[in-house]
Amino acid sequence: MTDLSQPDRLDDLVNHIQFRLAAAVSDYSAPWRTPMLATIADGGSTPTLRTVVIRTVDSIAGCVRIYTDRRSDKIGQIADCSAVELGFWDPSASEQLRVAGRAQILTNADAVDTAWAGLRPEARLIYRSATVSGAPLDAATPILPDAGGRDVFTVIEIRWERWDWLWLDQHSHHRARIHWSTDGERRAEWIVP
Ligand SMILES: Cc1cc2nc3c(=O)[nH]c(=O)nc-3n(C[C@H](O)[C@H](O)[C@H](O)COP(=O)(O)O)c2cc1C
Fold this sequence. Notes:
alpha+beta; Pnp Oxidase, Chain A; 9-stranded antiparallel beta sheet; elongated
């Protein structure tokens, strides 16, 4: 991590976070590759979390994409309430990032086709289950057909509105909030950890 003692280091911090998010997409072992995605369930009364893989990051547009099964619970939750948060933690760097924003299910079939085409064969397997995600099974391991899955595969795009970054440095803790207004203007500030 760079020296954070100067206020102008906030720009460096934003660059640092963007770099780490991009690395999470390309590096299979990056700790930030698998954040927890929080959605709101049951009409607003229940928060719920699950691990996901970050598939793309676009720092210009301000969004990340993840892939999922359109039958999974999170799809209905996002349709009911688009507010979501992603929680990233890197134990070796002691760095946490929370990315809050709005999620939408991509409706552009070309974009979903492209995402599907880029998936490794083993990553496609989970989309071949005949029954809905979360349904009871008779055995621990479902029997899956050799092909299919594209019909239930979909892409969630999360457009970020706020980052909350926390670094547990050996000597002190550092925390910053980066906020984007609706017209895309960025505001960053140090906050009490
Ligand atoms: C390391 C890891 C990565 C995962 N990646 C994804 C993912 O990218 N997309 C996804 O839908 N589920 C992923 N899952 C499974 C989810 O955590 C979750 O069990 C599943 O999506 C059902 O969630 P839901 O019923 O809340 O929709 C992953 C699980 C683990 C442990």
